[in-house]
Design a protein that fits this description.
Structural class: mainly alpha
Strand order of the largest sheet: 1-2
Number of domains: 2
Distance between the termini: 44 Å
Strand content: under 5%
Number of helices: 9
Length: 197
């Protein structure tokens, strides 16, 4: 029997790749080929700046975030796939104010080690919540996904439940992003129709 979900996922991945191939190639080159380490500001700064622009992560102080990452000494954590790397990157103090750049941190880690870190963003959350509503594949609330260990477990549960084990996190990210974007759009369209009636 065919795995219909795998076919749907592969189509979403193909759509994503057709639209964003250049961005993906640029980020792969930047993170994995040209600047794979985080021990020099001239390696960290371009990654933060480009990631911020491509993903619209709304980092308010790119230079300070790059310096923060440099101080975290995360290369061993990233190589090991440690979830601690996400926490260290996400929690930043800028001008005496604390910020949590959680989604940015997951993306930064993912581009260093795509096999260890799924990407957290609003599209992924929308997709996971929509499939939870449809099929109850796991027990969680939206707030639970703001804990990276839980988010990663939910993504793993999603992959197992729908028999998507052949997909790595990078491929799953593309599927969740495409699917979640459609969920968000359909809710916005339904809301617009409701207010127009």
């Amino acid at each position: 029997m065919d795995n219909q979900m795998l076919i749907i996922a592969q189509e979403a991945i193909k759509t994503f790749d057709n639209a964003y191939e250049r961005y993906e190639r640029l980020l792969k080159r930047l993170f994995q080929e040209e600047h794979p380490h985080n021990t020099d500001i001239y390696d960290v700064f371009p990654k933060v700046a480009v990631l911020n622009v491509i993903y619209s992560t709304r980092i308010i102080a790119v230079s300070q975030v790059a310096e923060h990452i440099l101080k975290q000494e995360i290369d061993c954590l990233l190589a090991d796939g440690s979830l601690e790397a996400v926490r260290r990157i996400a929690n930043v103090k800028i001008r005496e104010k604390k910020y949590c750049f959680y989604s940015f941190a997951t993306k930064y880690c993912n581009w260093h080690n795509p096999d260890a870190y799924p990407i957290f963003d609003k599209n992924a959350c929308a997709c996971l919540l929509d499939y939870k509503r449809k099929d109850c594949f796991a027990g969680f609330k939206l707030d639970d996904l703001w804990v990276y260990q839980t988010f990663k477990k939910v993504v793993d549960d999603f992959r197992t439940h729908y028999r998507l084990e052949s997909l790595n996190y990078k491929e799953l990210d593309k599927f969740l992003w495409q699917c979640g974007g459609e969920v968000i759009k359909s809710k916005a369209d339904a809301k617009a129709v409701g207010t127009a009636v």
